[in-house]
Amino acid sequence: MTRRAAKKSVPDDRRYPSRPVVGVGITIWRGDKVLLVKRGKPPRKGEWGLPGGKQNAGETIMQAAVREAREETGLDIAPLGIVTAIDAIIRDKQGKIEYHYTIIEVAAESREGKARAHDDALKVRWATVDEVEKLCAWPEVARVARLSLLQRAL
Predict the structure, then answer these.
(1) Burial of residue 94, with CB atoms counted within 10 A of its CB: 0-12 exposed, 13-18 middle, 19 or more buried
(2) pTM, entire model
């Protein structure tokens, strides 16, 4: 007789955190277009944004960027450097901090491969910076994309 192990419920340590969670966002470039993902999980579920996720203990920022890019988009990337760091603080209806991320934004290139939605991404698409401004509800996404574009030009 075989017994199926009950799936353990893992607490979501991202919701109502006692301190900010470190995340890594990635502006993945191919030519003049940046890769966007439609988020499949909160926060900002259903919105277009940059791929990324939580940094793991023992992992460098660049290692986290490479891993998250592969997990969410299936692409192998070459990190170029840090663009900026931003705070993403989302409060619930009562005003309590439901999510607080400190996101380190990394610029990267991906020269080959087909981007596909994996992990917690629902869709992927390449977009110009002008398209990013129209598609992304959170203004920080367009600001980060523009900063990354400027750094690439330098």
Answers:
(1) exposed
(2) 0.88
